[in-house]
Amino acid sequence: MKLFEYQAKEAFSQCGIPTPKSVLVESLDAVPAAVAEVGLPCVIKAQVLQGGRGKAGLVKVVKDEAEAKAYAAILFNEKGVRRALVEAAVNIAQEIYLAITADPRQARAAILACAEGGVDIEQLAATSPEKIVTRTVDLDHGLSGFHMRNVGFGLGLSGDKLKAFNKVLSSLYKAFRKFDAELIEINPLFWTAEGTFVAGDGKLTIDDNSLSRQPAYEITRDHYDHELEYEAALAGIPYLQFDGDISLMCAGAGLTTTVFDLINYAGGKVANYLEFGGPNYTRAVDAMELCLKNTGAKVILIVTFGTVARADVIAQGLADAVAKFKPSIPIVTCIRGTNEEEAFRIIKELGLEPLSETEEAVQRAVDIAAGRAS
Amino acid sequence: MSIFIDKTNRVEVQGVTGKEGSYWTKHMQDMGTNVVFGVTPGKEGQQVEGIPVYHTIRRGMVEHPADTAMLFVPPAFTKDAIFEALDAGIRKIVTIADGIPLHELLQIRSAAKSCGAMVVGGNTSGVISPGKAMMGVLPYWIERVYKPGRIGVMTRSGSLTNEVTAEVVKAGFGVSTLVGVGGDSVPLTRFAEVLPLYQADPDTDAVVIIGELGGTMEEEVAEAMADGRFTKPLVAFIGGRTAPKGKRMGHAGAIVTGSKGTVEAKVEALTAAGGLVAKKPSLVGPLLREAMA
Questions:
Q1: Does ipTM surpass 0.90 in this model?
Q2: What does the pLDDT look like over A290-302, one tens digit per residue?
Q3: How large is the average pLDDT for residues A89-97?
C-alpha cells in the first residue's frame, strides 16, 4: 500500500528523519492558518498518490497568503484534491536521491543513492547508471558502518555533511524495517544552506502482506482509480476497471492475466479484471455482484482451471449468483479442474454451455460483445 | 530420475494436523510420497493418515530421519517453521503459504542461500514428479495435466499451470518434474536456480517455463541459456503481454514498475538466447514439438 506524502513524512519523523515544518489541510478555510504557522514563502502540495506531481501542476511555491489561497482553491475546487500539505520552503544547497527497496535476487535490502536529487531514478539507471550508488544489506545482519561509508563516500560526501548523511541513512533503514516497506524513498533529500539535511519529499510503500502488522494504515478511495476497484478491495477481491465490454470473472491470477491477453489478441476489450481464485473461490456470488455493477459489461466470461478451487464449487456458486441476480447479460463459462464433470452438469442445468477450451470461450465472449453471437 | 522429489525422499509435514495439512498429506501419500512424520506443536502423540505427530522437528527426527519438509503453515508462522527445518538439517523445503511478509521472504531466502538449502514457494501449488511423488496441493488425478513424461515444467502460477501443462500433454508429451516457484515478488527459489537440476536430469529432455509480467526471473533463464549453463530445448509462455503498466495483475510479483518487468523484455531475452516463446497457451505444444525436432 502506497502512503501519502504526509503519512510518509510522519513515519520519517518517528524514525528521526528531519522534515520541513508542515500542516495538513483538508479544506480551503484551513489554508490561512496553516500558512501563518509554517511561514512564507511556503510550498503547497496536493496529497495524491500519483507520481510526477510537479509536472502535473499539483505542487507550487507561493509567496503570500493570497497566492496560497488562490492555488489551494484550484487544487480543492478544480483538481478534486482532498488533502494538501502546506510546507515551509527550504534554502536548498544540494539535492540528493536516497531510497531503500527489496532486492529479490540477492534477498537483501538495497540502498540506492545519487548525488543529484529530484531525478527519475529509473531513467537515470538507463542513461547514467554510474551515477547511482548501490549497496545491499542482509536484514539479519542489519545496516552497518561500512554500508554507510560506502554510500556516503560514493556520493562524494565528507566531514559534517557525511556524518549528517549517515544519520539520515540509518534512520531511513530503521523506517524501512519498522514499516515493512517495499520501497522507502526521499527524493529529493535537501542539504540546506544552514547545513542540515531535510526530506523534501517522501514515498513509502508498505508491503501488502505485512498490513496486518501495520494497523495504523487503511486503504482509502484515493488508493484506487475507480469506485468499483475500491469496493472490491474492501471485499478482498482483486479487481481492475477498464473501459471495454467483456467482464472477466476468472480464478487464478496467472490464468486471468492470460485471458486478459487473449481477449486483446482476439480484438475484444476488457471491462474488468476480476480474480476470485485462492481463498475466494467460494465467493462467485460476490464476484458476480461486482461484475454486474460494471455498467460497461456486455458479457461475463468465466474461466477457471482449479485444484483446491474445485470446479463443482465454482459452478454451484455461479448457479447461486444467477438465481440471486438473474443477470440480463450473457455468461460464457469455461470451468474446469477438480470435479469438472459435476460442474458441467450444474452449468447445463442453468441452460448454459460448459465450454472446456479457454480460447474458444474467449472467442465466444468477443463475438457476443461485438454482436456477432448471443 | 526426477528432480527435487521422488520416492526416496523422506518427508516431514509441518502443520500436518490442520484441515489442509491432513487432506493433502493423504494425497501426497496416495501418489507415492514417503511421508515419515508430521509436526504440530502441542499435538505430539496423535496420528494423521497413519503417520506420527511430534511437537517439533527435532523430536520427530530422533526416530524418523527426514531430508525434506512440506509446510502447511500460515504465512505469519512460515519464517519460524522454515528456520526450524533448516536448524534440523533439512535442505529441501516447500511452502505453499500465500502472503508471507516481504521482509521475512528476504530473511528466509538469505538463510536458505547461506546454508545451501532449496526452499520452494511461497504462494505456490508445490512440486510434483507425476507417478512418483508430490509435495503441495497439486491435482495429480487430472490425467490430461499430470501425465508422467520427459518435460520439465517451471511455473509462477497455479491455474495457468493446469491450462498450459494440459497443452504439453495434448501435444503428446508428459511431465518429468513440475516446480511451482510461486507468484510472490520474492520467490524463495528462482527459475534460474532450478534450471541446473533439469540440465543434469537424464529424464528431462526439454523445459517449459510458465512466466508472467514483473521481476527478472525469465531474463535470468535467458542468461543461463546464453552462457551455456542450460542447453536443453526451452519453450516459454509468459502472461501479461497486454497488461497495463503500474497495475498489479493478481500476484504480488506481477507488476511492471517503470520499465522493469515488461513481457516484451522477457520475450526478447529468451528468444535471443534460443528459446521459443508461445504467444498463447495453445501454441506451447506445437512449439515444444518444433524445439525437440
A1: yes
A2: 999 999 999 999 9
A3: 96
Residues A338 and A363 in one domain: yes
Strand partners, A49: none
Chain B positions touching A257 (Cβ under 8 A) are 160, 212-213, 239-240, 243, 249-250, 254
Look at residue B233 and give its three-state secondary structure: coil
Q: Which of A259, A205, A230, A265 is nearest to A49 (CA)?
A: A205
CB atoms within 10 A of CB A174: 16
**Grid cell 556516503 in the structure block, residue:** A152
Fold of B1-123: Rossmann fold (3.40.50)
User: E strand or H helix at A364, and its extent?
Assistant: helix A358-369
Q: Name the residue range of residue A327's domain.
A: 230-369
Reported as a pLDDT band with limits 50, 70 and 90, residue B139 is confident
* 3-state SS class at A81: coil
- The reply to whether A96 and A61 lie within a common domain is no
Cβ under 8 Å to B: A residues 94-113? 102, 104-105, 107-109
CB A96 within 8 A of CB A72: no
Q: Pairing relation of β-strands A22-25 and A84-88?
A: antiparallel
Nearest CA among A147, A199, A150, A149 for reference residue A175? A199
Is beta strand A42-46 parallel, antiparallel or unpaired with respect to A59-62? antiparallel
Please list the residues that pair with A61 across neighbouring strands: A43
Flag if B159 and A308 touch (Cβ within 8 Å): no
Residue B56 CA neighbour count, 13 Å, CB half:
9
**Whether A211 contacts chain B with CB within 8 A:** no
* Helix%, strand%, coil% for chain A, nearest 5: 40, 25, 35
Put simply, the chain A residues between 248 and 287 with a CB less than 8 A from any chain B CB are: 251-258, 260-262, 264-265, 273, 275, 277-278
**Structure pTM?**
0.95
Among candidates A126, A177, A254 on the partner chain, residue whose Cβ is nearest the Cβ of B159? A254
The average pLDDT across A7-23 equals 97
Report d(CA B210, CA A90) in Å as an integer: 51
The third-level CATH classification (topology) of the domain covering B142-293 is: Rossmann fold (3.40.50)
Report CB contact under 8 Å: B243, A254: no
The CA-based diameter of chain A, rounded to the nearest angstrom, is 79
Work out the minimum CA distance from A95 to partner chain B, whole angstroms.
Answer: 22
Domains B1-123 and B142-293 share a fold: yes
Q: Measured between alpha carbons, how far is A223 from A215 in angstroms, rounded to an integer?
A: 16
Per domain, the residue ranges of chain B are 1-123, 142-293
Locate the chain B residue with the closest alpha carbon to A141: B107
Q: Min CA distance, B16 vs chain A (Å)?
A: 17
Unique residue bearing C-alpha cell 507550487? A60
A residues 186-205 closer than 8 Å to B (CB) = none
d(CA A225, CA B44): 51
